[in-house]
Automatic annotation (TrEMBL):
Positions of region (Disordered): 424-448
PANTHER family listed in its UniProt record: PTHR48220, VACUOLAR PROTEIN SORTING-ASSOCIATED PROTEIN 62-RELATED
Keyword field: Membrane, Signal, Transmembrane, Transmembrane helix
Protein name: Vacuolar protein sorting-associated protein 62
Signal sequence coordinates: 1-29
TM ranges: 363-384
Length: 448
């Protein structure tokens, strides 16, 4: 089978060298330099009160709650055995021991020094996922003990006029515990692109797209929005969920890897291995519950609801890094969050507002649309009933619940509307914390 003149042993030798060369890439056993050299560098907003926070201390200030009550046989909570709470279900919430409306000191985290370092806190965990084709996804997770939601000054006109009685400084969508992240994808140790987490979704930039992201040396720059800590590639005002504004500026430097815990994680075996320090805690990563208080029920004196929109003053604490879609085809998570009804309506309204509805009182628009729908519905029902004998028969059949094949879709509009209202009413009755989840649902799993 000898082809050509090359001696066979040379071929074998070459393959051996190739395999040996690949070996270090097959399993990461120490933090690769590129993960630190290209770690994001963060600008916290100049007026943000809520700084990065020590992950273990956060747990120490909380107690495990299920359905708003401490666990009956309340186990001693220790940061190194948080995962023992999984036996009680996923709906366990690390709930602040103190009443958080009193704003205890630990909610504010630690302010980084002028070099961006923290001295008394570990607020960042870096999780490396090894993919095929020499791709490594480095997730840089940032932790803050408190997320302060938007206030009225962050609502775009004209919706800011619809919300009654909201004063600046009266924030909605707050929650205890806040996990944010960037993901940098490396191929052969070279950065390819970066993902910025923002509320229920985020934004991706290719590494060399200078119009998208800026760099400080070899490190991508991240602007953390005031209060919400959503991550943006640029400073300034950013609209999210169609109607809310996040503000970001070059306020205070935070270098998230001073210090950080570094890990590799294999989602197929659920094996998290600490790389640096080798003693970095691993158990917390397995905890399946929420990292803050569960959304207070409406009858809790701390809770308030924005009229019409269902936005809550306090939402639930988010679940942890393992839920942030660690296996991704691309820079962004594979699945977009499902839009809510109210979110979609606001989006449509705001896009029409931009072109055509400016200057018209939003109430006039809403009432006109409702009137228009009511009149159209009435006319349609009336026409079908009075003017066509066939339509009358359809309606009668539909009411009796018999619909022959082919006219199933002709179930009277009136009946459909009634059905819809009945279903809706039932849903509301069955759920004590029914909410439209308009702008930022922040219900754990919805966050990426
Ligand atoms: C920070 O807050 C102060 C007081 O509320 C305000 O006067 C100032 O304009 C704010 N600065 C920025 C950059 O938002
Ligand atoms: C967690 O660890 C602490 C001390 O390390 C211990 O006292 C406690 O019993 C443990 N709790 C559980 C549920 O294992
Ligand atoms: C928390 O404190 C607020 C006032 O700051 C009070 O209205 C509320 O009842 C307290 N809630 C609980 C559960 O202690
Ligand atoms: C460091 O953190 C610990 C635990 O949270 C706290 O008790 C201590 O006061 C902090 N020290 C400083 C200097 O901030
Ligand atoms: C997890 O991975 C480490 C090294 O990557 C290995 O030493 C250990 O045996 C693995 N553990 C399990 C349970 O697979």
């Amino acid at each position: 089978m000898a082809r050509g003149g090359k001696p066979r042993y040379l071929e074998v030798f070459a393959s051996l060298l190739f395999v040996l060369g690949l070996l270090p890439l097959l399993a990461i056993s120490a933090v690769p330099d590129y993960v630190k050299d290209h770690a994001p560098i963060i600008w916290l907003h100049s007026n943000d009160s809520f700084m990065p926070s020590d992950i273990p201390s956060h747990a120490q200030h909380t107690k495990a709650f299920k359905r708003f009550k401490p666990l009956a046989d309340s186990p001693v909570l220790d940061f190194n055995n948080l995962s023992s709470l999984n036996q009680y279900g996923k709906d366990i919430y690390l709930t602040a021991v103190e009443n958080i409306t009193t704003m205890p000191e630990w909610l504010f985290g630690e302010t980084p020094d002028v070099t961006g370092a923290l001295h008394n806190s570990t607020a960042c965990a870096v999780v490396l996922i090894e993919r095929k084709d020499q791709i490594v996804d480095a997730f840089y997770f940032y932790f803050y003990s408190f997320d302060e939601g938007a206030d009225i000054t962050q609502v775009l006109p004209p919706l800011n006029k619809i919300l009654p009685d909201s004063k600046p400084g009266d924030h909605f969508g707050n929650h205890v515990g806040d996990w944010e992240h960037n993901m940098v994808r490396f191929k052969d140790g070279v950065p390819v692109g970066i993902w910025y987490s923002q509320h229920a979704w985020g934004e991706a930039c290719l590494w060399n797209d200078e119009a998208c992201l800026s760099k400080q040396g070899d490190r991508p720059v991240v602007y953390s929005a005031r209060g919400s800590h959503a991550n943006y590639p640029s400073a300034g005002s950013h609209v999210h969920d169609a109607a809310l504004i996040d503000v970001a500026d070059k306020g205070r430097l935070w270098d998230p890897i001073q210090p950080a815990w570094f890990y590799t994680y294999d989602p197929s075996t659920d094996n998290l291995t600490a790389l640096e320090p080798e003693t970095a805690p691993t158990d917390w990563f397995s905890f399946l519950g929420g990292w803050g208080d569960q959304q207070y029920p409406d009858d809790d004196p701390r809770q308030q609801t924005v009229p019409y929109f269902g936005l809550k003053k306090y939402n639930s604490g988010p679940n942890g890094p393992r839920f942030k879609h660690l296996l991704r085809k691309d820079l962004m998570p594979d699945e977009k969050p499902k839009p809510t009804l109210m979110g979609t309506l606001v989006r449509i309204y705001m896009s029409w507002y931009g072109c055509c509805l400016r200057g018209i009182n939003p109430w006039v628009v809403v009432i006109s649309i409702l009137l228009f729908l009511a009149v159209t519905t009435f006319l349609a029902v009336f026409t079908v009933r009075r003017l066509t004998p066939v339509g009358k028969r359809w309606l009668t059949r539909a009411r009796k619940g018999k619909h022959a094949s082919g006219i199933g879709s002709a179930k009277g509009l009136g009946t459909k509307v009634t059905d819809w209202f009945t279903r809706r009413k039932r849903r509301q009755e069955h759920s004590s914390e029914y909410s439209m989840g308009l702008l930022d649902p922040r219900e754990g799993e919805d966050e990426v």
